[in-house]
Each structure stands twice: as structure tokens, then as C-alpha cells.
Amino acid sequence: MTAHPLLESINSPADLRALERRQLKPLADELRAFLVESVSKTGGHLSSNLGTVELTIALHYVFNTPEDRIVWDVGHQTYGHKILTGRREGMDSLRQYHGISGFPRRCESEYDTFGTAHSSTSISAALGMAIAAQLKGENRHAIAVIGDGAMSAGMAFEALNNAGVSDANLLVVLNDNEMSISPPVGALTKILARLLSGRTYAAARRAGEKVLGASLTRKVEEHVKGLVTPSTLFEEFGFNYLGPIDGHDLDALIPTLQNLRNLKGPQFLHVVTRKGHGYKLAEADPTLYHGVGKFDQTAGIQSAKGSGKLTFTQVFSDWLCDTAAQDERLVAITPAMREGSGLVRFEQEFPQRYFDVGIAEQHALTFAAGLACDGIKPVVAIYSTFLQRAYDQLIHDVALQNLPVLLAIDRGGLVGADGATHHGAFDLSYLLCVPNLVVMTPSDENECRQMLHTAYQLDCPTAVRYPRGGGSGVVPAATLQALPLGKGEMRRTGNGRVAFLAFGTLLHAALAAAETLDASVANMRFAKPIDAGLVRELAASHTLLVTLEENATISGVGSEVARVLEEAASYVPMLRLGLPDRFIDHGDQNQLLHEIGLDVETLVARVKAHPAYTAHS
Question: What pLDDT is stored for residue 223 in this prediction?
Fold first, then answer.
């Protein structure tokens, strides 16, 4: 890696604050170069981190971190923060097994004051810290750094509403880069783009200074700035609004932050940045360079079309477009995850039926419910971990009214490098108890396609839950055929000792383990309604039942199998295997499956160690 003399002298923000102001621009250049070099070797989030280099330096230079608290919304943009807070040498393990996290984690560093990864939490958390300082009589600052995309979520406005009536020393920094992951959407974004981009107001202010002089301009500014900036919006919330300023200009950032540091009460600073700034390839396509794998920093990301397995997300995308072409009632909804959820093609082919509602999962489900009330067929494409944020809406607005909303739940199970905040570990547990809801767990790509078709035909709430990435390489059939509701299938019949009941793609591990154990294997297909008849049949003919799910074992599908057996007064021994009762760290998916005992070799060992198995050896 290229030498970075200034950066290599920084092992903590105290070292940064010891630098002279003139050294900060060269430091920013070195930090940006280091980020490109580092992320090209490990993969990770790039565009967002390149866009916040100067802001990160300025915040740590002006404020006395970690005594002063900085909360980074989402956390995609914190690599520079990690590098400046003593983790530079750990960046070669970023997002890798037993390496440092791609998001802030309180257990990783005292400078990570609040763990993030889900959007729009920063203002709430920082306000809590500011109030805590008041209650404890401590003189410290709390800063929330939030992007314009995250600002579109309701929780951010709930926090602003609360903060504006307090006298807490809270600074909200709006990092306006006119992007979230996908291009920005919504009325607020249009306001920001038109009035908050910084071009109109800044240009007007510079022109005014030339004509009137700085002193008179400031006086006039107090009367007219509400006409050319949205200061009124945030000032009505009770904040003192400053900006917009260039977020890549250290000579603007540092004195502004120094002035804000001395003010009391809620402060709001708007900075304008550009995702991918300083790396032309990322500037040209910030979405492509949002989350990257390893790449050549000179050549950039090369197209991988035609290589690798078909992903479940692609299977969903193809099914969605095929079905939309046949049924004009179908609409697709995403909470700001167009690319990740596989909706790019749908938006291109059916723009009038595509709805990106922004980072607003709760609204997404109730919006879908309203559409369903009037005969539209909504399909909500959403990650498992983000669906958690809309649980009340799922229960109250969709399921209680028995509305035909289809949830295409991506990233069910372990997701790999994004870690605990993004693993789809709980969806089966929290979905199974919801009345009226049908829940399906495809074992391969073709079954995923057929289950989506099945769900779409049902006149009730449905969920098809599938994992990240590719499966077994099964090519989906072009024809669509509805599966019988609540019915599993036998995939292997063994010697009558052990039966695997597999939910989802762990079926393939079960089949491999069954070869060694001569076990029976059922592809259960439906988590709800569960195939109770098949469960009872297997219990009557085997001495040990083993349930497999890539979901928390507590209250998961294994518990549902146990309930069926209890109601049938069948007390065959069970081994319930799934995700353990702890948050699972980041790493390669296969490494993680081995760690928690869901790889083939460990499955065999765990079955052989069970008392019901050894008793018949």
C-alpha cells in the first residue's frame, strides 16, 4: 500500500488535533487515497466514505472526541472515522471473519458512541446523550450526522420534534449528498434539491457580499434567507439553522463547527457533499460504488454479467416482471432499496407501477394495505432486517384486515459481511404468530419462483422468505404452477432412525448429511401453515426428528413443529437446529454456518451425539 506519512502519524483524534490547519487538506487527500486502496482489497462501502472525508476530519478536529459524542447515522460513512480513531491497521480485516465491523460498534471502540446500521436513528440517540449530559451536569457535546436519505424517515422527524422543544446542546449535521443508496425520492428530497443544495443560496450570498459588503449582507440575510433556503423548516422545529456550506471545504467546515461548538441549544448545520468525491469512477456512478467487492482501483469495477449463479433476488426480479406483464394490477413497492431488492428492471419496464417510498418501511406496508383495499395487488420487496421496523403495520394494517399484500423478503438468514445488524435472523419467529399470514421458505431458485406465483394467487397476506445470493444452481422453470397450500414433500426416505425437516435452503445440507446417516429428509416448504400431517407421519416412523432453519431457534419453525407434536400427544425426541440465542458477527456465510453448527459435517456430528441417536446405535 502507498505510504501516507501524515495519516500514519494519526493514531487517535488527539494526534489529529495536534496538526496545524494547513496540514488538514493534505491529510484529507491521504485519507481518501487510503480508503480507495483499502476498500479495493476488502470490499465494503466506498462512495459514502469518500464523500465524508473532510467532514470526518473537521468533526474530530473541532470536537473533543470521545468525550464529545458523534453518532453516525446508518454508519456506511464511518471508515474514515475508524481510521482516525486507531483502527487504520485493522482495515485489512474490514467486514471479514473476526475482523473489524463495517459499521460503528460500541464494543469495538470508545469512539463508536452508538451502534448503527439501520437508518434514521442518529438524532434520537444523540438527543439522548445530550439530555444525559444535562442530567449529569457534564459539559460535553452530542453530534448527529445524518444524510438526506435518512432524513426522509419518520423517526428522524420524531426526534427533531422532540429535540426542538428541549434546550439540550445537540448539533445535527445534515450531510446532503442528494443520494441514499438508490437515487433520492419524495417531497423532502425535492425541497432539499431545490432549496438546500447550497448552490442558490451560497451563490446569492457571495454576490451580495461583493455588492453590499459582508456586514450589510449578514443583516439582509436575516430577513431573506428563508426565501432562498429551507431554514424556516428546521427553525420551526426549534433549531438554529446554518448553511448550506460546502462539505468538502475544510476552510468553511472548521470555523463553522468552531462557532457552533460555542452555541447553546439545538443547532442544525447543513453541508453539501458528493458521494464518491475524489475518485472519478465513484463520482460518476455512486450507486455502483456504494457497496463493492474487491476491485482494481485503476480499472474500477468490471461487469460480472454471465458469471456466477443466478441469485434469489434475480429470480424474484424475473418473476415480478413476468407477472406484471400478465396482470396490470401488480405494483411493486420498495423502501429505498431498488438495487438490492431487484427492482431495477421493473422500474424500467413498468415505471407507473413502481413505488420507491424512501426510507419508510412502516409507510411502505400501510401504503400497500391501502392499495390492496381497492383491488391493486401490491408486492413489497424488503429485506428481512428492515421488515422488523414495520411489524406493527404488518399486524394491524395488513394481517388484521386480511389484505392480499405479498412480502418478498430478501436476505432471510445469514447475509455475511454486513453482520449482526443485517442478518435476517428473526423473521420466521415474528411472522409465525401473525394470524392470516402464509409464510413460505423456498429451498432453491425454481421453488422460489413457484412460491412467489403461489403467494400471488392467494387472497390473503403472504410472505416468501429467501436468502442472499445464489442457491443450488437450479434453473427456474419458465412455467408457473401453484403449490398445494401448506404441503411439504419427501425428498429422501431413510432407515427410520432420523428424519430432517428442512425449511429453506438448508435442505441441501440436510440431504448431504442424510447420505451419511441414512436419514429421511422432508422439504417442508411452508413455515405457515405447517404441514402437520407430514410432521405427525414422520414422528410415527422415526426415533429422532431434526428441524433445520436459518432463523433463531427460539420461537422459530422448530417450535412450531414441537407444538404440532404436543397437540398430537406425540413425544418423539427432537433436535431443533438454527441460529443460536446470540447476535452473530460478520464473516463469510459458509464460515458462519460452520461456526454455529449448520454445515454438513457438524450436522452429522450433532445428530450422532444426540441421546436418541446413540440409544439406538
Answer: 38
The residues annotated with a catalytic role in the active site are: 275, 361, 389
Asked if 125 contacts 70 with a C-beta cutoff of 8 angstroms, the reply is no
Q: What is the CATH number of domain 489-614?
A: 3.40.50.920
* 206 pLDDT tier (thresholds 50, 70, 90): very low
**Distance linking the first and last C-alpha atoms of the chain:** 57
* Residue 159 contacts residue 190 (beta carbons within 8 Å): no
- 5-292 and 489-614 in the same fold: yes
Across 247-396, where does the E strand assignment appear? Answer: 267-272, 291-292, 330-334, 354-356, 377-383
Q: How far is Cα 47 from Cα 606, in angstroms, rounded to an integer? A: 44
Residue among 6, 21, 25 nearest 88 (CA):
6
Confidence band of 53 (pLDDT split at 50, 70, 90)? very high
pLDDT at 224 over 70: no
**What are 420-430's pLDDT values in tens digits?**
999 999 999 99
Spatial strand order in the sheet of 462-465: 354-356, 330-334, 377-383, 406-410, 462-465, 438-440, 526-528
> Taking the model in full, what pTM does it have?
0.89
> What mean pLDDT is predicted for residues 530-547?
98
Beta-carbon contacts of residue 131 (< 8 Å; ≥ 6 apart): 166, 168
How far apart (Å, rounded) are the C-alpha atoms in residues 40 and 462? 40
Nearest-angstrom CA–CA distance, 154 and 159: 9
The domain made up of 5-292 has a fold known as Rossmann fold (3.40.50)
Strand partners, 577: 548
CB 536 within 8 A of CB 570: yes
Q: Tens of pLDDT along 310-359?
A: 999 999 999 999 999 999 999 999 999 999 999 999 999 999 999 999 99
Is residue 177 within 8 Å of 147, Cβ to Cβ? yes
Give the integer Cα–Cα distance in Å for 168 and 265.
5
Question: What is the DSSP secondary-structure string of 449-475?
Answer: HHHHHHHHHSSS-EEEE--SSB-S-PP
Contact criterion met (CB below 8 Å) for 66 and 140 = no
Q: Indicate the domain borders of the chain.
A: 5-292, 312-465, 489-614
Q: For 123-180, where are the E strands, in sequence order? A: 142-147, 170-176
Of all residues in the chain, the percent with pLDDT exceeding 70 is: 90
d(CA 550, CA 556): 9
pLDDT above 80: residue 101: yes
Task: Locate 367 and state its grid cell.
Answer: 401504503
The three cell numbers of residue 209 are 457580499
Q: Which CATH number fits domain 312-465: 3.40.50.970, 3.40.50.300, 3.90.1280.10, 3.30.360.10?
A: 3.40.50.970
Grid cell locating 44: 465494503
